[in-house]
Write a structure and sequence with these properties.
The complex is a heterodimer of chains A (399) and B (298). With 399 residues, chain A is of the alpha/beta class. Chain A has 14 helices and 16 strands. A seven-stranded mixed sheet of chain A has the order 3-2-4-5-7-6-13, with helices on both faces. Chain A has a six-stranded mixed sheet with strand order 10-12-11-14-15-16, with helices on both faces. Chain A has a two-stranded antiparallel ribbon with strand order 1-8. The radius of gyration of chain B is 19 Å and the shape is globular. Chain B has a single domain, classed as Rossmann fold (3-Layer(aba) Sandwich). The chains are: A alpha/beta (399), B alpha/beta (298).
């Protein structure tokens, strides 16, 4: 059914129909509406789940870890400092191969404290062993959560999935979202969780045992393989979803008008909508430009990205996070896979925009495309700074 | 007599790598004898986790999970929630375990949350008064004047300068239905308390004094003796509480001077060097005497 839903409502509706039995969360802006909606659903009897409202994000993730180890579908959501606080647990959930789904309402990281959107928080968890998917709009956020459980619980995967949605830009914005009304159809797509190994008094196993140097590397090797092998599961989950529910937003990546493109803009999340509008406009004036959407950041879709970019002359990476002391994160990885495939003819310019909720306007993107024409191999250059910074006069900040 | 084969049938089996004389492993064995196999256990990072689960071996014949240092109570909360919602509770005891550091220091927040939310979890703190797994560093439950590697004695120091945190009273302040303090030196009393705890629905806290041979620096054969002396001196009062009221205390028949307890342990050796040390022992005697009055131990 088509409804006008706030992003957080769409996400909670999607979580509800995926039927997790344990939900645990700690409030942090801009995640709060998601867990408020879910707790109301439980209170109203519309979702049969234990809602464990805890004293911290560390515990929220730990509750999910314990419940998941019992073979019970579990869910949490957080952002920013909350994600950093639970990061230790996310590494642990991944290492223990537990299929917890976690919504990240992407938000900037302190200091200075800032509640608005960028992607620095989830980027900090890049290497945790969790799958990271990024949603472009509320419809995709809705569909992605159901797919996330399908991917997480696949026997060859058994990993946590972080569904990353831009805080406020998506979580607090109303859009038309088509929801699935028949829980039976979702159950057909996403059968009940049936874990081979779980905490069970009739069949006792030890979990989280000490891995000495003789076994630790093998355990991490298996984890690395599981993350890599999840690529095909992400693809099949998107394909099956399309076949059953008619919705498709790309699998590992998605491309927009890239076939003959000389310039391709690469990005993740909600900014893609603005970029596509700009591309449409520029296409009308004859510019050969397209868009590559990275939907799965972990695992990183190397082959698919190379195939999409290899015929372009210029690549512009727009990202809302930075590896301080190095530069762009997404742009660095894009450049790395091109180099690995012996493609060194593409000029890859990476820019950092929209940190801490700074607006990224269509004009910003047009200006950036213009600037990139003369730039070479920019690596996480800040774009869209206030003019007093550009003049090098930082002391004006307090005025 | 217990044969080697018999010990294989126990729920916490032989073959682990705990030190000889380890009172913590004795306590675990006693607890599982009472709780039986319808138990799911969590364990915080620490000695117990390390010495009982060196992959691919495990001493646990019940479902067992270790996640991190500070989240034993939180993981147990998740297990209890999962069992409840799926109708698999069936009298299963969820046992959360941690050392004194994992309980009263780094794990205090998660423990407080578990108490306050009212989970049906039995939390056991094995208190050996320091971070033994990392090599005898001071914790919030290290007793006054004890030597640890981060509260060493020296020309300017008699060891740990702060008194032991009153952790059981912190548990009681949450008004949970049952709090108890037990000792590895009193197995019958310990098992009685575990049995009672398991019969109560809701959060329970049991703190057990477990002497540590390498940390406290004594001969392994003295583990039980030292545990008993801790009680008989009044330094480790054993009691039970329901909500915020103490309902029973283990009386001591005859007060033993603290010196008898201290002199067996290398961690208090520095107090026996000179007159200044003797003054410190007087301070420890005062702690014991105050406990005797406060808890009515005599």
């Amino acid at each position: 059914m088509k409804k006008v839903l706030e992003g957080s409502m769409a996400i909670s509706e999607s979580v509800r129909i995926a039927e997790p039995r344990v939900i645990s969360a700690y409030p942090i802006t801009p995640q709060t509406h998601i867990v408020e909606h879910l707790s109301q659903m439980v209170a109203d009897g519309n979702l049969k789940a234990e809602f464990v409202m805890v004293e911290s994000e560390h515990t929220a993730a730990s509750v999910c870890l314990g419940a998941s180890a019992c073979g019970v579908r579990s869910y949490t959501s957080t952002a920013s400092q909350g994600l950093l606080y639970m990061s230790e647990v996310i590494y642990n959930i991944a290492g223990m191969r537990l299929p917890v789904v976690i919504t990240i309402a992407n938000r900037a990281v302190s200091a200075p404290i800032n509640i608005w959107n960028d992607m620095q928080d989830s980027m900090a968890l890049r290497d945790a062993g969790a799958i990271q998917l990024y949603a472009e709009n509320n419809q995709e956020a809705y569909d992605m959560h159901i797919q996330a459980y399908k991917i997480a619980e696949n026997k060859d995967v058994m990993l946590p999935v972080m569904v990353c949605v831009d805080g406020f830009v998506l979580t607090h914005t109303f859009e038309v979202v088509e929801t699935i009304d028949e829980v039976e159809r979702v159950r057909e797509y996403l059968p009940p969780l049936n874990m081979e190994y779980k905490l069970d008094v009739d069949n006792p196993y030890s979990f989280g045992t000490l891995g000495e140097p003789s076994v630790y590397m093998e355990s991490r090797f298996n984890l690395a393989n599981a993350v890599n092998n999840s690529k095909k599961v992400i693809v099949s989950a998107a394909q099956e979803y399309k076949d059953m529910f008619g919705k498709f937003h790309g699998a590992l990546i998605d491309t927009y008008k890239t076939d003959d493109a000389e310039t391709i803009i690469v990005a993740m999340g909600s900014i893609l909508g603005t970029i596509k509008d700009v591309v449409d406009e520029l296409r009308e004036s004859g510019k050969k430009i397209g868009v590559l959407k990275v939907r799965s950041f972990r695992p990183f879709p190397e082959e698919e990205i190379v195939a999409a970019l290899e015929d372009a002359g210029n690549v512009i990476v727009i990202e809302k996070a930075i590896s301080l002391g190095k530069g762009g994160i997404l742009s660095q990885e894009i450049r790395d896979v091109l180099y690995k495939h012996r493609i060194n003819s593409i000029n890859v310019n990476g820019y950092v925009l929209g940190l801490g909720g700074r607006d990224i306007t269509p004009k910003n993107i047009i200006d950036l495309i213009e600037k990139a024409k003369t730039d070479e191999n920019m690596d996480g250059e800040f774009f869209g700074l206030n003019s007093f910074i550009e003049q090098g006069n930082i002391s004006n900040i307090g005025d | 007599m217990l044969t080697k084969e018999d010990t294989h049938k126990e729920l916490f089996t032989m073959g682990h790598t705990g030190c000889s004389g380890c009172a913590q492993s004795m306590a675990v064995k006693l607890i599982l004898e009472v709780l039986g196999k319808n138990t799911i256990a969590t364990t915080a990072t620490g000695c117990l986790e390390v010495f009982s689960t060196r992959y691919p071996e495990s001493s646990w014949r019940i479902p067992w999970i270790h996640s991190l240092f500070e989240n034993s109570a939180a993981v147990a909360s998740g297990i209890e929630a999962a069992l409840k919602i799926t109708g698999r509770k069936n009298g299963t005891t969820v046992l959360a375990q941690g050392g004194d550091g994992g309980t009263a220091d780094i794990g205090l927040q998660a423990l407080s949350g578990m108490f306050e939310r009212g989970h049906d979890v039995l939390y056991v703190c094995y208190d050996n008064g320091a971070y033994m797994n990392t090599g005898y560093q001071r914790s919030g439950l290290t007793p006054f004047d004890a030597y640890t590697t981060t509260s060493p004695s020296g020309k300017q120091s008699f060891g740990n300068s702060r008194p032991k945190k009153y952790m059981p009273q912190i548990a009681m302040a949450h008004r949970i239905p049952y709090t108890a303090v037990a000792s590895a030196g009193y197995p019958v009393d310990l098992q009685k308390k575990i049995k009672k705890a398991a019969s109560i629905t809701g959060p329970k806290y049991v703190q057990i004094d477990v002497p540590c041979t390498p940390g406290w620096k004594y001969e392994p054969r003295y583990s039980v003796k030292i545990a008993r002396l801790a009680v008989q001196t009044g330094l480790y009062p054993l009691f039970e509480a329901e909500y915020d009221k103490i309902i029973s205390v283990k009386k001591i028949s005859k007060k033993v001077p603290v010196e008898e307890y201290l002199k067996l342990q290398g961690r208090f050796k520095h107090l026996f060097k000179d007159e200044a040390g003797r003054m410190e022992i007087e301070k420890i005697q005062k702690i014991a005497d105050e406990n005797i009055v406060k808890f009515g131990l005599l």
